[in-house]
Amino acid sequence: VKILAIETSCDETAAAVVVDGVKILSNIISSQVDVHRKFGGVVPEVASRKHLELVNPVIREALIAAGLDFTGLDAVAVTYGPGLVGALLVGVAAAKAMAFALDIPLIGVNHLEGHIYANFLVRPDLPFPLVCLVVSGGHTDLVLIRHHGDYVLLGSTRDDAAGEAFDKVARVLGLGYPGGPLIDRLARDGDEEAVDLPRSYLEEGSLDFSFSGLKSAVINHLHRCRQQGEEADRAHMAASFQKAVVDVLTAKTLEAARRYGCSTIILAGGVAANSRLRSLLDARARQEGRRLFYPPPVLCTDNAAMIACAAYYRYLRGEESPLTLNAVPHLSITGR
Ligand code: ATP
Ligand code: MG
Ligand code: FE
Measuring CA to CA, which residue among 299, 43, 306, 38 is closest to residue 171? Predict the structure, then answer.
């Protein structure tokens, strides 16, 4: 089954062709980061316009790289939410046009489900039940996956998403955008114990997250240093901040795995590329006899191959979308 998928939920225009949810024939990602960098973040209206310019060339490139023309496809998949409404609409319109013109099924995919399925793309035999930590630019969700397509939301952030916290802290450290990979790199030269930062665990037993207090603590520390006429060591701050985030993510993910009897844990979303999160959660999971899996970095951040993979399992279940499919900007992982 050959599925072409389109992803335009945020600031990457992406298209991919994947066979049977595992064989990536092409995975084209045109990132707009250079366009948005001068604003220090994604500007929604600019993103929509860029998607409009790029969507057809990116689809064409994905087909050419896969050695296909339009006739070789079994279905067309598209991210319909969550994301920026104007950005999502570009992909949704393109996918509907293709599905109608080619008379093949249209499959709407939840972007967060796509992030989760980056794991199945490389490892289709993952054993259920799974606990997945979805950590991205806009989300921090702990999800229990009982079967393909069966999700229970166990907890999520009450304020900033993990990736958002990385990006904001990188900005106050003057590192640039997007901040996650820059903090990850700089933290290697810093001491994780150098700056004492708070870790928010919320009420006893809660699987929710909160990162805004940590972000404020970083800003306050930098101000205090400046008032005393000294510059804070950026590498120490990056390492200490990263450790504070990763400690909480690790503790709550393991708690969820224990509570729901999951011997396998997976990571999804852009922050799943973080080297410290991977190493700490892997070590702690092993101590308890659990296994951790995560996709390669290029499949952690936004791409269309993960959307094609999620769509494949929907295709197997016969879950097609009507040609009236619309963008749903606040779609949650449980589909509401
Ligand atoms: P969402 O998926 O919630 O809609 P998004 O699509 O914008 O949001 P992703 O593309 O999944 O987010 O991930 C981007 C985020 O991942 C950014 O916040 C970026 O800083 C972060 N990120 C990427 N690599 C790393 C890394 N190595 N360490 C920490 N954060 C990272
Ligand atoms: Mg992005
Ligand atoms: Fe994403």
Answer: 38
